[in-house]
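worker-03 picked up job from queue 'complexes'. Input manifest follows; two sequence lines, order preserved.
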Amino acid sequence: MTTGVNGTKVIGFGHYQPSKVLTNEDLAKMVDTNDEWIVSRVGIKERRIAEHESVADMATAAAEMALSKSGLTAEDIDIVVVATCSAIDRVPNVASTVAARLGVASPAAMDVNTACSGFSHAVAVADHAIRAGSATKAVVVGVEKLSDFTDWTDRSTAVLFGDGAGAVVLTGVEDGEEPGVGPVVWGSVPEMSTAVRITAEDPHIKQDGQSVFRWATTTLAPLARKTAEAADVKIEDVGAVVFHQANLRIIEGIAKRLGADNAVIAKDIVGSGNTSAASVPLALSKMIEAGEVPSGAPILLFAFGGGLTYAGQIIRCP
Amino acid sequence: MTREEIREGLAEILEEVAGVNPEEALEEKSFTDDLDVDSLSMVEVVVAAEERFEVKIPDDEVQNLKTVGDAVSFIETARA
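worker-03 finished. Artifact:
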């Protein structure tokens, strides 16, 4: 009988963004829009677009950085979980390709698709596997290349999305050490399953913007608060909050209702757009690298999106 | 609650959510064309109006509320 550990912690983080920048001015040449219109509605100034990189290329780059920061090597890893909804190949999954490129010998390797909320789901899957004793050290990636599914003639969606990847490395805590990853709070809203969609009939991302905006701004703050409570963290002690980077107005709206007054609120959307499952780890990695959060501080991750789905957890800053 | 009281309440919400001058928020004014309330601000107005007037304004109904007067009528009927 394998026995697990009492919890896990984040010991490495990484990210990757393509070099190609698409500004609001660039978009104004493609569709009927302008910088003022985009900034006032969604708060985005520019986004990165993968011209040459595949989903697996970006995932691998982010995972390599996270592995390097963790001090572990590929040989130490025994589970790879990748959150994405934009991998075009059905098989192999992205996790298997990332494992092969990193040189991980024989990991459990799986993709998780819960659209924009994927990364927090993937962290939970890895955390649960390590706590149960099914694995010991994980690479968890959020990656997305939504430019492959963007209708570049539709101004309501073309301005929103960007490409990129982020990753973390998780390991079990020592005996007596407090867990560095809190319990996941997750769920879905099945009656709104078609509110965000990329379907076979029209393989471009579409959404019922007003319905999603209303759901996000009215229901998510209490769930985010519950996420902090689940980890026994007082909301005023949260050092940073990383919401899914969907729309600056949603982020600011939830942050106001949440009342995490002492926290740095991630606003990576301004320069990266909405990168779906990549947005939380991408913003997280950039925030930690910039030294915006002290080591050990609780960071509230909360992701939400297509399904509709949501998931969040508190992690301790490595 | 009279129509005028509902309109005044909406005017306060419009000022708070979208920076609309309360003197401009008259019944005949269009949210988008006259008051420059974009689609997401409209959602914020609706959510605030639901709380203030204790009514439900479904997503499907929001697109039919073109003018301040449309919203006043919907709220007046919903409260009746």
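worker-03 released lock.
The CA atoms of residues 9 and 59 of chain B lie 21 Å apart.
Chain B touches chain A at residues 38-40, 42-44, 46-47, 59, 62 (CB under 8 Å).
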